[in-house]
Here is the input.
Amino acid sequence: MNLLAEHEKIAVQRFSNTGASLFVKKYIHKTPTSMFDIHSFHDFWEVWVRTDIINGRPLTAYLVRLGLIKDTNAEGFFSNQCSSGFCKTAMKSLLGIYNKMFDWGIFKPIRLNITELDDTSSVSRERLELKRWNEMVGKIHEQKRGISFIDFN
Here is the structure.
């Protein structure tokens, strides 16, 4: 929420200073993996945030890319977060087996694209290209141009 609020603040400032009504930026977000019950470990997720200024108000969409994919870099990345040799070896082995499951066809890649807009959220085996996502969000925000906003603050 803080990232989205800061992004919108920058977008509004840019609009006030230059008239630029579109602001898109990629953020790398460090995410604790405690939600997967692996305490003290973390991962990095790519987060794209787009704000359009419509009728003087910011409309913001975000895209988080994560999913079930083969990732040979994960073996070193997560095992290096271990403090003991046993943990490092176990993590490398587990992730090595995880990656082999893709090679053997047991696991199939799944892409999960999460946005706050139902129209752009999707689960797929195909990657949603950033250009396509931007087009989708742009159309949705443009449709809201004729809508008057209610300020609840």
